[in-house]
Amino acid sequence: MGTIRKPAHPGNRAKQISTILVVEDEVLVRFMLAGELRTAGYKVIEAVNADEALEILAHDIDVSLVISDVRMPGSMDGLALAKKVRIRYPQIRIIFASANVPNIDVVDHDGLFLKPYAASKIVNHVKTLLD
User: How far is CA 41 from the centre of its chain?
Assistant: First the structure.
């Protein structure tokens, strides 16, 4: 005779941890923001520029949100990155966190934070988007 199993109660299911990709060339800013997001319970992947971010996304990693600076070294800035993400991965949310926001309105995004910013404000906004 087989074992009878009770159906799992919805409240007992493990909460899925969202993955956030932080794209920031300023190492201290990236570490600070990534640390705050990890403390809040998110999985964080870090990239130093848009090229590295696209390479990470191409490996089918289940990223829910990209937080990107606008001005970065490499072949494209954060605006170009966001446009590519919207086309290739339309389910991914995008937040800009930058000191420089020229033409930000030309890119669909889910939030904008001007530097210097309090990481806690970004974390709170992330919670409203993902939780």
Answer: 13
